[in-house]
Automatic annotation (TrEMBL):
Residues 1-22 form the signal peptide. It comes from Paenibacillus glucanolyticus. The keyword Nucleus does not apply. InterPro entries: Bact_solute-bd_prot1 (IPR050490), SBP (IPR006059). Pfam families: SBP_bac_1. Keywords: Signal. This is ABC transporter substrate-binding protein.
Length: 535
């Protein structure tokens, strides 16, 4: 869990484009400090704070990282004072939130809003069309969400990607238009590269050669053959990154540069990926505990300095120690597939809805004003870093430059942050505004940006927009993918470990086509074409 919490903050350490920054508006424009405003529907102001003339209580359902009581969090207490809106919390642990959310939808006993809701496109379409989730665009366009409206106007793809086939927006995303990582990347153990005097591999063959040398030449120098060239947890952590070596942008549906939709598990590139991984397995270059170990077990191997190549959000999360520039981000390598490598880049927004308002809500206007604050500089600062004077203070307020304060009582700053704000360990609504971290970024943060720009951005492409299927299409796709996903994951493990010989590839392809893989491509090609034409 600690790693998850830390990883959640990585998103907020990336840089947002200047266009998005311009879209956020000034404090006066977004109502950050004004207390007088224009009165509107039912005593809800379109500008300024408090948002409501009379106290309002709203029920909110969210995921909870379990670090602190939300009722006593300084960020939420500050927001209540600012807005005049009191929240009653219906919280569920992260691991059981999905089940709880489904039960709430089924029971009809709804909260007034969902926060950090992880609303899948199918849920938005289904519960929106049923009237359980209400359309948000009316309130956005009528002036109750000026920050969100500016962002949508500056970035029409965001609006387009969260507008369902019936023309409504039922959920809001987390927006970060300059994000690079769609999943955590791969990292080399820099000590091993140095010990073997090796430059980063550029091709799959060079990668194989390097991993073989790791196995045979004792780069950790302890005289034991204990090095693990490549490790994984069920291949889930490396699959998407490695797919790029064979020209595939995503471990799910993706569209190529010509707009053609692909289901990767029936591509020629996937055969190349399986063949390579089986080769590594046979020669004991891929950890034979890959399909049985936990993330913590993998981490223990890293802390024992046994790993040469691994996945994580940052290398020190696995290897231990402090942030360091000694362990380079892996450069994707070229394979026998033409136009490789590629990199499935972050699409600039969350793939699922992070916020929604239900039909039970007594004041959607006030709720939109409340959530809109999180899409401003002031709101992003408050919910990401807490109130001024706790973990940070302004060094130069006019230019929005901050500096860290000592952590109260000592200890880890990130863990303390989890005690003061709900935005910890979960994907929440809002923006990544680069000004929020101005003055707080470290040399390590700058190095990460430089590694991304050199190695990933030039070959990056967002795999697939946030498209919506119709209710009928979604029902068909869900049923097909339920069986396909189970089958392809089982067969992946069998092909990689040699339980299923690669000679049976054609038989495998015949089977997944029988199970509807071509129909999946057809359904998503139609949705992608509709998205592309704005229909």
């Amino acid at each position: 869990m600690k790693k998850l919490r830390k990883a959640s903050s990585i998103v907020l350490c990336l840089t947002l484009s200047a266009a998005l920054l311009a879209a956020c508006g000034s404090p006066k424009e977004e109502g950050g400090s004004s207390t007088s405003g224009t009165a509107s529907t039912e005593g809800v102001k379109k500008e300024g704070f408090p948002i409501v003339d009379k106290p309002l209580t709203l029920k909110v359902m969210s995921q909870d990282a379990g670090v602190a009581d939300w009722n006593t969090m300084p960020v939420l207490q500050e927001m209540e004072k600012l807005s005049g809106i009191k929240l009653e919390y219906q919280l569920s642990p992260i691991d059981s939130f999905e089940t709880k959310k489904n039960l709430v939808f089924a029971s009809g006993d709804l909260p007034d809003m969902f926060y950090a809701a992880d609303l899948k496109p199918a849920e938005q379409v289904t519960y929106g069309s049923q009237g359980i989730l209400i359309p948000l665009e009316k309130y956005i366009d009528e002036g109750y969400a000026p920050n969100i409206k500016k962002i949508l106007d500056e970035h029409p793809d965001v609006r387009k990607s969260f507008t369902t086939p019936d023309g409504h927006m039922y959920a809001l995303p987390f927006i970060d238009t300059a994000a690079v990582w769609y999943r955590g990347p791969m990292w080399y153990n820099g000590e091993f590269l140095k010990a073997l005097n090796v430059e980063e591999p550029k091709t799959t063959e060079e990668l194989y050669t390097y991993l073989k040398r790791v196995k045979e030449e004792d780069p950790n120098g302890n005289g034991q053959p204990d090095e693990i060239p490549l490790t994984s947890v069920k291949l889930d952590d490396l699959r998407m990154f490695f797919f790029g070596f064979w020209g595939m942008y995503n471990e799910g549906i993706y569209a190529d540069k010509d707009g053609k939709v692909h289901y990767p598990y029936q591509e020629e590139g996937y055969k190349g990926y399986l063949t390579f991984m089986n080769r590594l397995w046979k020669e004991d270059l891929l950890d034979h505990e890959t399909f049985s170990q936990t993330g913590d077990q993998k981490k223990a191997k890293g802390e024992s300095n046994k790993l040469a190549l691994f996945n994580d959000y940052h290398p020190y999360f696995t290897l231990g120690g402090e942030p360091s520039t000694d362990h380079p981000l892996m450069t994707p390598v070229k394979s026998e597939i033409a136009d490789s490598p590629v990199y499935g880049k972050h699409p600039g927004m969350s793939a699922r809805g992070t916020f929604a308002i239900t039909s039970s809500n007594p004041s959607p206007e006030a709720t939109m004003r409340w959530i809109d604050y999180l899409y401003s500089y002031e709101g992003a600062t408050l919910f990401n870093q807490g109130p001024e004077g706790v973990l940070w203070k302004f060094k130069d307020k006019e230019n929005r430059v901050k500096e860290w304060l000592p952590v109260p009582g000592g200890g880890d700053r990130e863990e303390y942050r989890g005690k003061i704000t709900p935005n910890y360990g979960i994907l929440t609504p809002g923006i990544n505004d680069p000004d929020v971290a101005k003055g707080l970024r470290t040399e390590f943060d700058e190095w990460i940006d430089q590694q991304n720009q050199e190695k990933l951005v030039p070959i990056g492409k967002a795999p697939f927009p946030n498209v919506y299927l119709t209710n009928e299409e979604q029902s068909e796709a869900t049923a097909l993918l339920s069986d396909l996903d189970t089958y392809v994951k089982q067969m992946e493990a069998k092909f990689v470990t040699g339980q299923e010989p690669m000679e049976n590839w054609d038989k495998y392809i015949t089977q997944i086509k029988k199970m509807g893989s071509d129909r999946i491509v057809e359904l998503y090609q139609g949705a992608y074409d509709r998205w592309n034409t704005g229909k």
